[in-house]
Amino acid sequence: MKGCCTWNRWCGIGRDRKNTRVERKGDKRRAASFSRQNTWTRTAHPIQREETQGEKHLLEQDALDDMNPSDRFRKDCVLFYCPEAEELAKKIASESDCIELGDISWQKFSDGFPNLYVRNALQIRNRHCAFLASFHSPHVIFEQLSIIMALPRLFIGSFTLVLPFFPTGTAERMEDEGDIATAHTLARILSHIPLSRGGPASLVVFDIHALQERFYFGDSVHPYFASGVPLLRERLSRFEDKDNIVIAYPDEGAWKRFHFYFDDYPELICTKVRDGAKRIVRLKEGDPNKKHVVIVDDLVQSGGTLLECQKLLATLGAQHVSAYVTHGVFPNASYTKFMPEENGNAKEGFKYFFITDSCPLTVKNCSGRRPFEVLSLSRPIAEALLT
């Protein structure tokens, strides 16, 4: 009989579900909540007041009880995000009906420390959840880590952290005793993400600076290293002069990282030579004469190397010079150094400068500004979340 009653509840058979729950023996809390609700409804001028946390919890539990059992174990994804990554999160959700956006209240206490709240926490149980992070500044890392460490403990089915830009990637080694490899530090912190019900967390990172950094992570997190370079290839296929493109690398490290993406393109390799305190860029192999040269690298900071490459290639006869980096960091507004090409003269600047939206603050500064063009990571991130 008990099983039949339970089945009738899920099928909506019999008396109203809410009344059935209220009349259930011993369920005093919900009966009181239901009584208050009816009282407010009957009042001509209901008292407007904010719901307490306990009442919110009861309402969320009621919604969970009303949910069809099959919906509790849906295999789609609930994507939470930090405030700075909201635009990218919306683009990711638009890529698939299987991705819905979660809701987090990002507030601060009077002392400046974060006051965070995950809304509808009960409804994400047994769901696949992800968090889109942006560690663009040390000031925002703590509050985002608080969410990252909390979500797997909410009885979710599995957890994925999407960190498009791994910010300490360039500090991956020690050159002198006493140097701190902060890439290893951040990797150790992320390796302590709690286990979800489905096991270790997954970590999605795009074009990490040094591939050996995968070994900095512990066994309790599974890093997945993706690349934004396929977005560039897709964009190059739509160039009017696509048959005249040559791929250039600012150094041998970039060639080792990305050359296998461009087996069907001619290539140039530059190299950096020290002259006292200066670094001089020279052409190691290849011919840029009368070609549209596209420089490819993983990230740009001050941009000195890319600017030197552009000047060198233009001097050697390149018809156009463009550039691509997955991560446009641009500290101290260094993006203002990159000028657009005018009148088809490669010596004046770049025809195109492609970046992705891995660094949200850079996107705000560079969108609509020549020569920059943003290639969104929304599609590859959506694919990573659903495969």
Automatic annotation (TrEMBL):
It is an enzyme of class 2 (transferase). Residues 22-55 are annotated as: Disordered. Its EC number is 2.7.6.1. Residues 78-191 form the Ribose-phosphate pyrophosphokinase N-terminal domain. InterPro entries: Pribosyltran_N, PRTase-like, PRTase_dom, Rib-P_diPkinase. The keyword ATP-binding applies. It comes from Picocystis salinarum. Residues 283-327 form the Phosphoribosyltransferase domain. GO terms for biological process: 5-phosphoribose 1-diphosphate biosynthetic process; purine nucleotide biosynthetic process. NCBIfam families: ribP_PPkin. Belongs to the ribose-phosphate pyrophosphokinase family. It catalyses: D-ribose 5-phosphate + ATP = 5-phospho-alpha-D-ribose 1-diphosphate + AMP + H(+). It comes from the Eukaryota. Keywords: ATP-binding, Kinase, Magnesium, Metal-binding, Nucleotide biosynthesis, Nucleotide-binding, Transferase. Pfam families: Pribosyltran, Pribosyltran_N. One of its GO terms (molecular function) is ribose phosphate diphosphokinase activity. GO terms for cellular component: cytoplasm; ribose phosphate diphosphokinase complex. The keyword Kinase applies. This is ribose-phosphate diphosphokinase.
